Amino acid sequence: MIGYVRGRVTALFKDxxxxxxxxxxYRIFISDKTRQQLQTGEEAKxxxxxxxxxxxxxxxxxxxxxxxxxxxxxLSVSKIGPKVAMGILSSMxxxxxxxxxxxxxxxxxxxxxxxxxxxxERLLVELKDKVGAFVSxxxxxxxxxxxxxxxxxxxxxxxxxxxLGYETGEIMPVLKKLSGSYDSVSKLVSAALREFARGD
Length: 200
Hints:
Layout: E1 4-12, E2 16-21, E3 24-29, H1 32-37, E4 43-52, E5 57-62, H2 65-75, H3 82-91, H4 94-102, H5 106-110, H6 117-127, H7 152-163, H8 168-178, H9 185-199
Parallel strand pairs: 3-5
Antiparallel strand pairs: 1-2, 1-4, 2-3, 4-5
Helix pairs in contact: 2-3, 7-8, 7-9, 8-9
């Protein structure tokens, strides 16, 4: 079992990347959110899950432990495979997904790729008692961030990062650290994504 791979990102694809370590290029399947945080030519460490099939051995990678652990829990649900689990992680943060499960929000779950009403109900039943460890405090699924009034660039960056699935609690410390260093929303968002990647 390969626990993690640390190396240089040599290529990014729609649903995977090449991570070169020790002269070997590993194709690792990743979520959209992980892809947004990787940059070609930079070093990264991905926690991995190795799926062994009759015709292939596949690696799935995660920047954070929480995403990795939720992926494993999703695989424990009947009829949920790695592809659907990765689609869920691409569309919703672990904390938002846990919030939806805890509150029984079938509507939010059915908006996820590959999840119909029956599968959403199965997720609620099978995961209700398994997701408690992910969120130490109850947090609402939909919360509006407090947008700083001092800087339109910062406010724009908050909206952009939330659209990528980040939570306000994750965003604010990073933007506070970077505040005043960038003169456009896109530059500030790019810098914040690099900070998130380094944080893991």
